[in-house]
Prior knowledge:
The protein has nine helices and twelve strands.
Amino acid sequence: MKIRALSVMSAIATLGFAAAVAAGYFGAVHRAFDSFAHLRVYFAVLMAISALPLLATRLLKAGALAIFAALLAIATTSGTVPIPAIGMQYGPLYPVDPEQPVYRLLQANLRYDNHQPGRFLSLVGRVQPDVITLNEVSDAWAEKLRLLDSAYPYRIVCPHLADVWGVAILSRRPFAAAEAPRCDPRGAFAATVLNFGGRWVSVATMHLGWPWPFEQAWQVGGLTPYLESIREPAILAGDMNAVPWSHTVVRVAAAGGLTLMPSPGATWLSFRLPEFLFFAGLPIDQVFAKGAVRIHRIRTLEDIASDHLPVLVEFSVEPRATPPESEISELAELRSD
């Protein structure tokens, strides 16, 4: 009798987690389903665990099928399942061309109330990236970032309405004089055009809010005109608060004509949990590219006392599709007309 009750409980739990996994594939239907997508791996693991007792009962086949379905669901988050309806695809990583310079972009969510800013500043000193994209730039952080003025004299800081979730771009490379840096009114998006050795590249960062029932879905809609204005070649990095296989990330990529690049793995875990569990966190800091930008490597770096790990992007820019500043000026004039 106890074995039968255990089988029933196992079957019910398996069906429940299976429903949660399935819901995540319908993010395009309603934003609520997309919230399930963010937790797909967790639900799939729980689904497989709850199905294990079924292997010792008459529901052996059902249990085996549930475990296979769980493994398939996890596989759809890897970018290796060639089925557009259920999988997602990353853009390619390119080998380094020894004849082309390699640049570095550092993306970091600083955490607005970070009490150890020196850890991030020390990281910048060691890595020495060409450009830095930042999220959660609070008033306190804006003050600390002035310590980088001499090393990164070109910058745009977009304050958030609540003074905690601003975004910023710091650069060693000069901004294009003909195209002014841009912020959205809420301080969730920043973009500029940088000169990488005579090759002009649009660099942008974005920080989205939390998924449904919070503001993420409508925020993407409000930022769509800004995403559409990113001219190639371009690279966008930021905290999307959304996993790569979510409908939210698909919307961002489609709005900007961008290609999602391979995830560096888990980048977020609640600061209330120990650091050794970071491997089980969520990959919500994303990198996108388009045009002549060639991404070579994307990896996470050490903890900076934030609940996000910083992400380092190594890339090159092909000589083609990089107009001189005179052409940028003409484009700016056409846009203003």
